[in-house]
Each structure stands twice: as structure tokens, then as C-alpha cells.
Specification:
Layout (H helix, E strand, L loop, with lengths): L33 H10 L3 H12 L6 E11 L2 E11 L3 E9 L3 E2 L7 E2 L2 E9 L5 E7 L14 E7 L4 E7 L13 E7 L2 E6 H4 L1 H19 L5
Antiparallel strand pairs: 1-2, 2-3, 3-6, 4-5, 7-8, 8-11, 9-10
Length: 226
């Protein structure tokens, strides 16, 4: 995740695209569908790096739907950004995440530090996707009409790689009881959680997230025929 110490990249820096002139070097990212590549470039987080790692993970498979989500977080006085790319193919769900890596030390331990970024991918067969959870938030529900856009949408996708256990003290029905009843909790799978809001990301971003979630839900429902 880039911090305030490191400038934001703008566009696919560091490489020439297909129209970059004679002798332009081809890269894995050049094989991405134009719409997906534009979305990665629009996010602005080292798009050349992100495009390449996504393309390698896709392995030439068709990208039927995608969602690119750039998020800004705050760590003390530093502003950090990172990007998550989720791509639906005919057989898999490909997830890529890029953020800040450990700074590299040049010239030995006493040398200057240079910024590093880390990008990881995971490819999950659709048959292993266990849940697609959508949380809709609407403003003025009393005025809501069918088809109105949501003010906020959270997409949670689980396939069992990451399990979250929420615990709280257990209690009984007797309000006078002060005995120790241990703990109760719930176990949930949330490998990817993407929160998109109209206020922060724009209404179009919420609509894109909804379309992707719908496509993923349809693909997992019909995975036997995929």
C-alpha cells in the first residue's frame, strides 16, 4: 500500500503499450481485456505491475466480469493506498492484491532505502466458492423505490482460506445470574471483503460492484454447467 512518502503512479508507467511505437516490448498485461485494463489504470496503483500479475494469474482465460477496488487507509500520520482486483472467469475466481512491501536497502545495511511494492494473486475454482454475501445500505428507506441505487455496498466472498471467529461472553435467560457461562461465537469465511460507497467512490462504482456480485452469484449457482 503506497504511503504519503511515495508518489502515486499515474498510468502504466515503466513500459510501452501496444501503441508505444516500433519495437515496443510486449508484457503480460497487454493481454488483458481493454475494459479490465482501463479499470486497473484508473485505480492508479502501479497499474503496470497490477496488470502483469493479473494477466499471469488468468493464464489466458476469459475475464467475464471484474471488480477493481482501490482503498485508502490511515496508519498514524501516513496515508496508505492499496488495490484489490477480482476477476470472474468461466472456471475460476482470480483475486489479486497489491500494496506496499518492505522497503529495500541498497548498498548494504547502511545504504539508502528504496520503495518496494508487493502483489499477490490467488485463483479459486468456482466449485470452492462457499458464499457471496451482499450488504446493502440505503439512505431514506422510507422513500426507497424499486431499482433505486444503494448508498453503500459491501461484497464479502468466502471460500474457506480465511476464517473469522467472533466471540462474546455467553449468558442465560436469568437476569440475576452471575455465573460464568463461557463464550459463544460464530465462525464465518470472508476471504475478500470489498466496501464501496457512493460518497467515497461514486455511484458508478457501487453499480459496478453490484453487477460483479450478480455475475459471481449467477456463476456459482450454475457452476455445474460452467
Amino acid at each position: 500500500m503506497p504511503t504519503s512518502r511515495h508518489p502515486r503512479s499515474s498510468g502504466p508507467a515503466g513500459r510501452s503499450g501496444p501503441s508505444g511505437g516500433r519495437g515496443a516490448r510486449e508484457t503480460p498485461g497487454d493481454s488483458l481485456a481493454p475494459e479490465l485494463r482501463r479499470a486497473v489504470e484508473h485505480a492508479g496503483y502501479y497499474p503496470a505491475l497490477v496488470s502483469d500479475v493479473v494477466a499471469v494469474a488468468l493464464g489466458g482465460e476469459e475475464a467475464r466480469a471484474h471488480l477493481v477496488h482501490q482503498e485508502t487507509t490511515f496508519d498514524g500520520e501516513e496515508v496508505r493506498r492499496h488495490v484489490t482486483v477480482v476477476v470472474l472467469t468461466p472456471t475460476r475466481l482470480v483475486v489479486a492484491h497489491a500494496d506496499d512491501g518492505t522497503d529495500l536497502v541498497e548498498g548494504g545495511t547502511g545504504g539508502p532505502r528504496s520503495h518496494a511494492a508487493a502483489a499477490s494473486t490467488e485463483a479459486v475454482p468456482l466449485s470452492q466458492v462457499r458464499s457471496v454475501v451482499l450488504s446493502h445500505v440505503v439512505s431514506r428507506p422510507d422513500l426507497y423505490r424499486g431499482g433505486d441505487p444503494a448508498a453503500e455496498l459491501t461484497v464479502t466472498i468466502g471460500w474457506g482460506s480465511v476464517q473469522r471467529l467472533d466471540l462474546e461472553p455467553a449468558s442465560c435467560a436469568d437476569p440475576q445470574c452471575d455465573a460464568d457461562h463461557g463464550y459463544s461465537g460464530s465462525l464465518s469465511s470472508d476471504d475478500v471483503v470489498l466496501r464501496v460507497s457512493a460518497a467515497a467512490d461514486g455511484a458508478d462504482a457501487v453499480a459496478r460492484a453490484l453487477r460483479f456480485a450478480g455475475a459471481l452469484s449467477a456463476a456459482t449457482a450454475g457452476r455445474a454447467s460452467s
